[in-house]
User: Fold these one by one.
Assistant:
Number 1:
Amino acid sequence: MIPMHIEKRTLRVFVIDPDKAEREETSEFRAVKHRLKEDGLYKCYICGSTEELQVHHRIYHMFANLVDFEKLKEFCEEWDIYGYGRLLKNQPITSIDDIRNMMVLCQDHHTGTSDEVDGGTGIHNLPIGEFMMQKLALPGCNPIPQDGESFEGAMERVRQHQKREEEDNE
């Protein structure tokens, strides 16, 4: 069995959040949501759920006045989750609401689960590696406790997966 250990961290994030006017949904943002639906991509990028969906800005809206749009374009072409980076390669990004900067997430994977005691499951709660592991883990082996699941329950689930793997390899 692969030895397991518990890793618990308290993250403190210090970021300058520029003063901004009250955010309003732009016509570009509404068009992006419509396009994602038309293209069959309106499901959670992490779990595939079609319930309680939200469109997440990969580079947050609060940084709209600070972002280098050429760098954002390069980033969106490198991590081209829906193919729009390639499709729109010859077009500049001039707005934080560009479709290439978006990711559809369910409530649990956007702002987190209803039980935030152990940190939650959302992109706003986890470092990117742990967040993405929710998409990339083997079936039944997600190391992040999910909504309604205790830390101990998640650990037992992962242990059971490892035990089955060992038995299959004997």
Number 2:
Amino acid sequence: MASIEKIKELLKSTETVLELVQQANGELVLRPSGSDSEPLVSIKFSDQVQAVLGDNAQALGQHMIQSAIYMMMEQQSARWHAEVFDVEPAHYS
């Protein structure tokens, strides 16, 4: 499984197209589109959970990944805003 740093680097690029693919063994993987490289994220549900979820397993995996990406974007946004507010102004009004 790829590290968070690798995912952050990928998301920093100007444009990244990702695909969520369900492999033959039922594992969901997030990877750059059209690539057979190591997955950025993989989700494997147990057989018991897979049986309960049925066709909804891929939708659940997609929501999990979307939540993670949203959280990372929120953290990045907070860092950008913190950098702006941490700069001392040249003049006070």
Number 3:
Amino acid sequence: MALMITDECINCDVCEPECPNHAISMGEEYYQIEPSKCTECVGHFDEPQCAMLCPVACIPVNPAHVETRETLMQKYVRLTQTAA
């Protein structure tokens, strides 16, 4: 499952630097998460850092990108191999 940032985002800049996969960037109006890079921090942390730190709790699971923990781990491996 990739996460998503809703329009309740207040652009506080807390989430972007905490994303180990660099999946978060500023969109036209508020931050957004690139689903192909989001592993919900699987492989890096026990919990998604962006959702843990978000002061307005606007980072739910994206229903359009449901993935198993195994799939997220495979994505993590793929992303870290290409970054090396």
